[in-house]
């Protein structure tokens, strides 16, 4: 079910009352979809995957601005999910997450998936607040023990590790308040990267700069091995530099080469030991 919230701005000056009474009131409406109304359970036990897909479909079907509200609680999303924007009528969808989205504790379910939660072909999507718990403890315990039964998924031998990317084109979007905590990576290319000049295969790249603003990003307790010489890379634009980036207790090494960090138009703070030496 959807609620409609409206706002109408008017002046209160006494001399304007008669004028206002004769003017049409233009309301800005936002449809609000609550995941609980679509069957989601905030107990962290019952799978809410289908409920989240259904609420996304409902939001996409509207041409109005929409907000998907996730109240407080723990929501089990057992399977990998893709939120597709191909058939979306709305170009203004907000995910407001006041709870925690959790993955299955059985790492084998997501072990073979490329992503747990992903958005494809979307326009005008904002994600506000929220926490993600991918339940990686058991997977990393398996890998650190050297077991051959661990799945090949996860951050092992992947092309990218902790990545934020945006194309070099005008935008009013932003990425802020992101935290990467307690992550282990093995033989990963580009373990830590912010790329605001992303251009697939470097073909037909726009001669512009990214308008996306990236700020307040935290990397804390990150460890593992890098498959590339540049293990930490912040490639931002001079027009919209990356700001308030925090590296805290980061240890990335390589068995085969000397690794380094690279920063362009990025500023922030280094706390504790950071290897390779941070460039902020």
TrEMBL record:
Gene Ontology molecular function, alphabetical: polygalacturonase activity
Top-level taxon in the UniProt lineage: Eukaryota
Principal cellular location given in the protein's record: secreted
InterPro entries named in the record: Glyco_hydro_28 (IPR000743), Pectin_lyas_fold (IPR012334), Pectin_lyase_fold/virulence (IPR011050)
Transmembrane residue ranges: none
Residues spanning the signal sequence: 1-27
A Gene Ontology biological process term: cell wall organization
Name of the protein: Polygalacturonase-like
UniProt-listed Pfam families: Glyco_hydro_28 (PF00295)
Locations listed in the record: Secreted, Cell wall
Alphabetical UniProt keywords: Cell wall, Cell wall biogenesis/degradation, Glycosidase, Hydrolase, Secreted, Signal
Family per similarity comment: Belongs to the glycosyl hydrolase 28 family.
């Amino acid at each position: 079910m959807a609620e409609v919230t409206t706002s109408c701005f008017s002046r209160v000056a006494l001399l304007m009352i008669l004028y206002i009474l004769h003017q049409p009131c233009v309301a800005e409406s936002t449809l609000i979809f609550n995941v609980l109304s679509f069957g989601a359970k905030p107990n962290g036990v019952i799978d809410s995957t289908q409920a989240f897909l259904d609420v996304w479909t409902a939001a996409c079907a509207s041409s109005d601005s929409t907000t998907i509200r996730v109240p407080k609680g723990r929501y089990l999303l057992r399977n990998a999910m893709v939120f597709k924007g191909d058939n979306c009528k709305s170009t203004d969808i907000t995910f407001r997450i006041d709870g925690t989205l959790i993955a299955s504790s059985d790492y084998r379910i997501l072990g073979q998936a490329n992503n747990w939660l992903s958005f494809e072909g979307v326009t005008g999507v904002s994600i506000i607040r929220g926490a993600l718990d991918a339940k990686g403890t058991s997977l990393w315990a398996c890998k650190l023990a050297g077991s051959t039964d661990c799945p090949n998924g996860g951050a092992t031998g992947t092309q990218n590790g902790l990545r934020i990317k945006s194309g070099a084109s005008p935008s009013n979007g932003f990425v802020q308040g992101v935290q990467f905590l307690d992550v282990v990576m093995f033989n990963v290319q580009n373990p830590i990267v912010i790329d605001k000049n992303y251009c697939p295969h470097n073909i037909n790249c726009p001669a512009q700069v990214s308008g996306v603003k990236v700020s307040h990003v935290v990397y804390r307790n990150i460890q593992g091995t890098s498959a590339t010489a540049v293990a930490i890379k912040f490639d931002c634009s001079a027009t919209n530099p990356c700001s308030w980036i925090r590296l805290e207790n980061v240890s990335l090494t390589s068995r085969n080469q000397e690794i380094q960090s690279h920063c362009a138009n990025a500023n922030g703070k280094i706390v504790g030991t950071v290897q390779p030496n941070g460039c902020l």
